[in-house]
Structures are given as C-alpha cells and as structure tokens.
Design a protein that fits this description.
Blueprint lengths: L1 H14 L2 E5 L4 E5 L2 H15 L4 H12 L12 H17 L10 H8 L2 H8 L1 H16 L4 H15 L2 H4 L5 H22 L2 H4 L5 H18 L1
Antiparallel strand pairs: 1-2
Helix pairs in contact: 4-5, 4-12, 5-8, 5-10, 7-8, 10-12
Length: 220
C-alpha cells in the first residue's frame, strides 16, 4: 500500500512537468523544465494573436515592469493632407485675417485628400454642385460660403493635366508657394507679430502656420 501511494504521488507531481504530444499513430511524452514551459506559454500567446512587433514590444515591457508604452502614428501624407484641408476650411471662415481668400481655392484643390476629391467628382458631388448652383441663382450667398462652392466646381471641372499634379513634388511646391504668399499677407497686414496672436486672430494664425508647415513636411 505504501509503495502504491508513493507511485501515485510521484505520477501526480510529474504530470505538472510533462507535456504530452499526441500523434495520429502513436503517443509520445516529453519532459520540460519550468523555464521551457514559461517560454512555450509565451510562444503560444504570440501565436494566438495576429503578431505585431510593436504590440509584442509593449507586452514585453509590461512583463518586465516598465508599464504601458504610448506611441503615436507617423505623420503620413494622408494625415498631413487632412491637416491642410481643415486649416484651409478654418481660414475660409475665420474673421481675424486679411488674406486674399480666393488663393485658398487652388490650395484646397492641390492638398485635399483623395477621399474628398473622389466624393466631389462622384455622383453626390455633382448633385451638390447642381443644387448649390440653383440656390445661387435665386438667393444671395456671402463670399465665405461662395468660395466652397467655387472650390467644388474647380475640383469637378479641373482637367487631367491639373489633377495629376496632386501628390507630386511639383504640386507640393505650388502649394508651398501659395501658402507662403498667404502667410506673408497674414502677418504683414496684421502689422506685428503680437497682433497675430491676439484673441481674435490666433485661430487664423495657427491655421496659416499649419498650411505652410504641411507642404514643408511633404517635401522632406
């Protein structure tokens, strides 16, 4: 009886250290040490995920006790185009600037993301332009609201020789020239750098800086 109980206890202890692998025709057992078992568990976790090296780095740092790691997505050209588009829209509607806002229309056409351009050139964009034209025929539209309509028509009617400049180095250089001229107008007509950061014009100043900065980053 004593021999039987010892053998049972020994088998229960060894079961915690043995990994059984079953084949189709035979049964094989292999013993692993505790460090090897820990390595196998980690390998199983990574295999169960769609392995991402950055995610693995974050998990590894959490395991080692460094805590969570924060990281940001890179400034891709598409993200920069969205920044430029939002900044252009702010300048179209902002009151605290004296720039010639008609220059914002070709800047928008050159820097707008591909998703916006494809929507404008699609059926919904054409219907929007048609309805806006009907409203313009019978009602007065302020200049701030008329410029987006002109930008829509410019994107729809622009020939291939112009649209192919989008996303090219020549188009970025043209955008930088327009943005630099607008920044020159903005800071010159305000009179001083201090007035550019007043409460009434700081939003337009930040939008102008973003409009200039985006083509510079795209050229790098």
């Amino acid at each position: 009886m004593l021999t039987l109980s010892l053998s049972c206890c020994s088998s229960l202890y060894n079961n915690n250290r043995v990994l059984s692998t079953k084949g189709s025709n035979s049964h094989q057992t292999r013993a692993f040490s505790p460090p090897q078992l820990k390595q196998l568990r980690t390998k199983h976790q990574f295999s169960s995920l769609n392995y991402n090296p950055l995610r693995g780095l974050v998990m590894d740092k959490k395991i080692r006790g460094f805590g969570a790691v924060c990281y940001s997505a890179p400034l891709t050209p598409q993200n920069l185009q969205w920044v430029s588009t939002v900044s252009t829209a702010i300048l179209l509607l902002a009151k605290g600037t004296a720039i010639q806002k008609s220059f914002l229309v070709p800047l928008f056409a050159l820097q707008a993301p591909a998703a916006i351009v494809s929507w404008m050139k699609g059926e919904y964009g054409i219907w929007t332009a048609f309805l806006a034209l009907l409203v313009r025929l019978f009602f007065y539209i302020p200049g701030e609201l008329e410029l987006p309509f002109i930008a829509l028509l410019l994107v729809i009617l622009s020939p291939y020789q112009i649209t192919r400049l989008r996303g090219t180095q020549e188009g970025v250089i043209a955008s930088l020239a327009i943005a630099a001229y607008l920044a020159f107008q903005h800071f010159t007509r305000l009179g001083s750098l201090g007035k550019a950061f007043d409460q009434g014009s700081i939003l337009a100043t930040l939008a102008t800086v973003c409009v200039v900065l985006v083509p510079c980053l795209l050229l790098i």
